[in-house]
Amino acid sequence: MGAAVTETADEALAGLDPAARQQLPNLIAGLVRDVAADPVTGAPTPVIGALDLATFEAGRPERRALVEAFVAQTAADRRRRRSQPARAPDP
């Protein structure tokens, strides 16, 4: 799963200008609400919450471009997965 998330993020960021890419830390900070211990491993795990897009994007076209790139890439990934034949489960 981690590799798929990284691939999606890389694809979304690839077409953006540097100003929009530089907003990624701000986007992540806007989504993380807390850090909690993973119940299985005890490792610190971010707790994700909703982002107030209007506030995040207000007067910042580079932030809007960043969000739109992730939304578009996620939609493209969904379409691609639906068009692929289903895989048989591993034995």
Task: Write a brief structural summary.
The chain is an alpha+beta fold.
Total of helices: 5
Structural class: alpha+beta
**Main beta-sheet strand count, sense and barrel state:** 2 strands, antiparallel
One letter per element, helices H and strands E, the order comes to HHHEEHH
| Portion of residues within helices | 55-70%
Alpha-carbon distance between the two ends: 20 Å
Strand content: 5-15%
Radius of gyration using CA atoms only:
16 Å
Report on the structure:
- By secondary structure, the protein is an alpha+beta fold.
- It has a domain at 21-83.
- The protein contains five helices and two strands.
- It has a two-stranded antiparallel sheet.
- Strand 1 and strand 2 form a beta hairpin.
- The mean pLDDT is 86.
Describe the secondary-structure layout.
Blueprint: H1 2-14, H2 18-21, H3 24-31, E1 32-37, E2 44-48, H4 53-57, H5 61-83
Descriptive key words:
91 residues; alpha+beta
